[in-house]
């Protein structure tokens, strides 16, 4: 444990609940998809399509929640809990307002949205039902994100983990009841799945609200959700908007890459889909370390312990590299058997095994990029991360993928090679930025006694 740091802000204490939460969410998400497939293949298509839409729209309120989370950890590190508390309250209010607007649009015009996104006509009735009900609950997703992010950045990563685990289990049980007409539930098919999704979010939001009200030293009261500090919110947005742009880049370049893969053929698209499932188990480990590191570095930075933050980043990166590399190697060695659990198609398995070999190169690059990128975000250097993402994701990950995969005919190997190059390029640029210590020299002097000096957040 790092000398002098609060036990709840150590890397391990922060990382393991995040990993358990993300792992079980992924596992239960897979179970959820399998259960929806019992309704029909069309139902699976509508749920998958709608979730892509929901994930893209989430970037609108995640921008506020993510920026607020970093500042909350910084302020707590600087012993300025009242500021942290105010920032947390505003993040919930603003995220909820954005989520409410999105919910209203999805509830009122589901078919119009589906048509704009080229949803096939035969899926329109199902899309109308699912988007209006599940999409109408996006306001709950917004406040859940704000609650969870604020709570995690106080150092309590266990609380959101327990809530999400419990609610996902409830969701799967309710899905079972609605799909099969069991446990006293009516047999409502996809409508029941949408209702189950909405009900699960209501439960999660209620439990997280109670937890949030007690997340700080002084209990938060409901009238305080009307408070608004323009100066503090300005700091949230200065850090948050580049995070939103960065996330949007990733979402839309991934969608573009999927269209390139679809152009190659059904076998390649299936192989990549199965690869996503296997690769996610490597990604979850790296993501858990990277998110834990972001909270830890923001806390240390706020406490003016910049040298500790600098060293902690490299320590976490090396630990993460060792873990994800071993994990990727194990998956590669078991590749044929694992892929055989999904399909008997020899061509798909052969393509998948090749990609698992390339995954041995991808995962270390992704870990370096996530660790150093999150560390830079934690000290407020979010614009730098945004700029390199805009350039590399669009030019290398997306643009070069089309050239190598489609134009030159290298197929999935060419596309995957470009994805690897993108991760290492962004990782290298982030490494240079972190090593330069520019962020350290720009740090404001944040008094530990709760004075009024400027925030530890910086602009790139």
In short:
This protein has 16 helices and no strands.
Q: Work out the helix count.
A: 16
- Poorly predicted ranges: 444-460
Euclidean distance between termini CA atoms: 31 Å
Number of domains: 2
Number of strands: 0
Helix residue percentage: over 70%
String of helices and strands: HHHHHHHHHHHHHHHH
Computed structural class: mainly alpha
Strand % is: under 5%
Overview of the structural elements:
The chain has helices at residues 11-36, 41-77, 81-108, 110-116, 124-136, 138-152, 158-180, 190-213, 230-264, 266-302, 306-333, 335-340, 346-378, 382-407, 411-436, 438-441. The protein is mainly alpha-helical and 460 residues long. The protein has two domains: 1-228, no CATH class; 241-460, no CATH class. 50% of the residues are buried. GO terms for molecular function: antiporter activity; xenobiotic transmembrane transporter activity. This is Putative MATE family efflux protein. InterPro entries: MATE_fam (IPR002528), MdtK-like (IPR048279), YsiQ (IPR047135). One of its GO terms (cellular component) is plasma membrane. It is a multi-pass membrane protein.
Q: Key terms for this structure?
A:
2 domains, 80% helix
Write the layout of secondary structure elements.
Elements: H1 11-36, H2 41-77, H3 81-108, H4 110-116, H5 124-136, H6 138-152, H7 158-180, H8 190-213, H9 230-264, H10 266-302, H11 306-333, H12 335-340, H13 346-378, H14 382-407, H15 411-436, H16 438-441
Membrane topology: Multi-pass membrane protein
Transmembrane segments: 53-74, 86-109, 129-147, 159-178, 198-218, 239-264, 284-304, 316-340, 346-363, 384-404, 410-429
GO molecular function: antiporter activity; xenobiotic transmembrane transporter activity
